[in-house]
Every structure is written in C-alpha cells, then in structure tokens.
C-alpha cells in the first residue's frame, strides 16, 4: 500500500472499546438527555430547514449568537462538529504540539495523525502541573492544556496558567486551554488570560450541555488565530441540523447549569463514600468524573461489569496504574456503582 503517508502506519486507534451494560459510566456523558421541550423545538426547527441547501459556510448566525452570549468577538469564534475536530485542525496547523502526560488522548492522536512534531511533559507526582519543565519545553507551537484536567480531574492554579500564557506570548506559541469540564469546576479563564493572540479556549456542548450525540464544540481565539483554524476546516463543516439544535440551546442555556449543579453535588457525595472504601482511593475532582485508584484495575473493572456497571480503565496511562474513571451518572446508577465497589472489598 503506497497511498498514504508512512507516518500513519502503526498509528494506534483511539483508546475506546464499546461495551454494553445497564449502567453506563464510561464516557463522561451527561446522564440527562436534552429537556424534552427543547428537543421538540429543535426538531421543529430542523423540519423547517431546507435540507437540500448547504448551511452557512462557517456558521455565521450561531457565531453571532455565541459572540453576544459570551462577549467575545464574532471573528474569534470557530464552531465545529465536536471540539475534537478543532483539536485536529489545531494539530494540523501547529508547528509542534506540546502536551502533558497523561492527558486527554486525542491531543497526541491528532498530532500523530497530522504528522506534527509532538512532545509531552509528565505531570508532577500528585498530578500537579510541571510548570518549570513546561516553561522550558514551550518554545512555540500549540500547547493543549485541559483545565480542569482529564483524566485526573485536577484543576490547575490560575498563577500557573498566567505564567504559561506569558510564555506563549514570549515564544509566539499558542496556549489552548481546553475547558470541556468548566461547568463542573465553575471556572472561566477568559478574564484572567484575556484576549491575547497567544491564548485560546476550547469548549464543548458534549458535557454539561448534554449533547454528546449531536457533536458540537467551539474555539474562542484571537480573530487571526480563528481565521487560520477556519481555513484548515472544510467549508460548511457545521451541519444544518446541528445548527438547529444549537440555536435552541443558546436561547435556553439554563438547563446546563442544573445539570452541572446536580453533577457537582453527586460527585462530592460519591467521593465521600469512596473515602470509606478499604482499598480504593478516589482523587478529588473538578469534572463530571472521578478517578479512582484500585489495587488491580482489571479485576475491579471486570467485577463492576459483572454487576452491570461499565466504567473506563485508565491504568495504561503513565502514573495511573490501577486507575478507573467513573462518570457521574444518575443517583441510582451511582448507588449501583457504590454497591458493586464495596462488594469487591468484602469478596
Ligand atoms: C469530552 C472532552 C472534549 C469534548 O470533545 P467533543 O468532540 O466536543 O465531544 C474535549 N476535550 C476534553 C479534554 C474532553 O474530555
């Protein structure tokens, strides 16, 4: 086979295997579907659309709405079907990708697919941000920094982000703060880091907005950076039906607050319960999931699955030996998880 670039050989697939289970806590999804009245309104708007027509070239109408809602210049907003696609576009455009290890696996995957030089700096013990090593390693290119961090759930301190933003400015690089979990930490780093051409923010509708299946995310950046990213993406990239859903959601964003409030409270409840576990150790989380260290990830995973509870193994990542990731689901789902978790301890 001589059709594809040789660097794509041996590219590992995205680490996800789909399994069926009654209690699904493996993908950091919202446990709630979009509220029915909003879903019905979105369907009505979809039905009114002319499906034979292309949507707007770069979702101009929605960008205008987002811009008004967030107080961010319209030219600095890029909408795409999923922030994963924006990560790929940024990785394609980047001179180099800088990453943490462990981190959200799609950054590395996108860099490798793009054939972009890639480096990762290990987290400190206890999952702290390795600021000194990062300041040294960040010499240009794009640095993807999830904050709150996946897969550990850690929230990095403001001062560190500020130092990294200054470094980005100094070296002419781009710091991309991925705020996929921001609704669960209640943080917004835009005010702190400002509208520098060297800082951008990634956001998604997949988590607190409960639209994982719809595929939508956006980038907030300096207009010039946004323009460069739009040029890498194909035209008309945001489907018309996705646009119809987003229109409704942006007119009624309040429900996402309720989802986030539920998740935060339930996360803390489950965290406290897990502190009483004789062998498992939960890490504090600012996201919609809990990272839990067990003596044996494979055994813990299989035991939970036998009890109908599907979680995600994280033990193949550096520093995460024995770790599982549990999405915060419905109260009864979390009770099923806790029952199974405590059973394994006394088996
Ligand atoms: C879930 C998640 C996303 C969301 O990706 P989408 O393509 O918008 O669904 C982005 N970044 C991180 C770190 C995530 O965990």
Shape: globular
Classification by helices and strands = alpha/beta
How is the largest sheet built, in terms of strand order? 2-8-7-6-5-3-4
CATH class of the largest domain: Alpha Beta
Would you count the extended β strands for me? Answer: 13
Low-confidence stretches: none
Q: Which ligands appear in the coordinates?
A: pyridoxal-5'-phosphate
Ends apart, CA distance between termini: 52 Å
Mean pLDDT: 96
> Largest sheet, described in full?
7 strands, mixed
CATH topology of the largest domain: Aspartate Aminotransferase, domain 2
Question: How would you describe the oligomerization state of the chains in this entry?
Answer: single chain
- The CATH superfamily of the largest domain bears the name Type I PLP-dependent aspartate aminotransferase-like (Major domain)
Indicate how many domains the architecture comprises. Answer: 2
Q: With helices defined by DSSP (H or I, 4 residues minimum), what is the helix count?
A: 13
The percent of residues in helical segments reads 40-55%
Keywords: Amino-acid biosynthesis, Aminotransferase, Histidine biosynthesis, Pyridoxal phosphate, Transferase
EC number: 2.6.1.9
Domain Aminotransferase class I/classII large: 23-339
Organism: Thermus oshimai JL-2
